[in-house]
């Protein structure tokens, strides 16, 4: 059994109008444009300001330090080395600059031998400036290591 379908679109009684259809040829622009309103409280404004300042500082500080490093590299380094006072050599710590080591054997006996650390020279090449007598810049100090 089939049911009849009723719909205003499927009607056989269609009526056509003889009136001409008007097409819109000109539209007037709206007199006002939509406006987006955002409510910013003081906490949000402060958070945005802190974010902008943080980005500026995060970019500014590395740029500043890079320019200072470049300027320092251009200047001649004439500062004397601190550990050796600009001489390029340090006194041996074992023989205290004498070149020989005295060992007390007891019973008023002493043995004097040549220092094995400086090989009897009494001094060693400064490990800070590598014998140049000029204090290395901070970043240049990484290249040298103390052998003692």
From TrEMBL:
<dbReference type="Pfam" id="PF17302">
    <property type="entry name" value="DUF5351"/>
</dbReference>
<dbReference type="GO" id="GO:0003756">
    <property type="term" value="F:protein disulfide isomerase activity"/>
</dbReference>
<protein>
    <submittedName>
        <fullName>Uncharacterized protein</fullName>
    </submittedName>
</protein>
<dbReference type="InterPro" id="IPR035272">
    <property type="entry name" value="DUF5351"/>
</dbReference>
<dbReference type="InterPro" id="IPR036410">
    <property type="entry name" value="HSP_DnaJ_Cys-rich_dom_sf"/>
</dbReference>
<feature type="transmembrane region" description="Helical">
    <location>
        <begin position="46"/>
        <end position="65"/>
    </location>
</feature>
<keyword id="KW-0472">Membrane</keyword>
<keyword id="KW-1133">Transmembrane helix</keyword>
<keyword id="KW-0812">Transmembrane</keyword>
<dbReference type="GO" id="GO:0009507">
    <property type="term" value="C:chloroplast"/>
</dbReference>
<dbReference type="GO" id="GO:0010206">
    <property type="term" value="P:photosystem II repair"/>
</dbReference>
């Amino acid at each position: 059994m089939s049911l009849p379908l009723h719909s205003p679109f499927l009607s056989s009684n269609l009526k056509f109008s003889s009136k001409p259809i008007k097409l819109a040829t000109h539209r007037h622009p709206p007199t006002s444009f939509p406006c987006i309103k955002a409510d910013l409280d003081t906490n949000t404004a402060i958070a945005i300001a802190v974010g902008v300042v943080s980005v500026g500082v995060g970019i500014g500080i590395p740029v500043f330090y890079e320019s200072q490093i470049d300027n320092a590299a251009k200047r001649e380094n004439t500062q004397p080395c601190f550990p050796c006072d600009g001489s390029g050599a340090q006194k041996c710590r074992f023989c205290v600059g004498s070149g020989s080591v005295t060992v007390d054997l007891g019973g008023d006996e002493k043995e004097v031998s040549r220092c094995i650390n400086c090989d009897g020279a009494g001094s060693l090449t400064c490990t800070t400036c590598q014998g140049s007598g000029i204090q290395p810049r901070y970043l240049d100090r990484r290249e040298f290591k103390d052998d003692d």
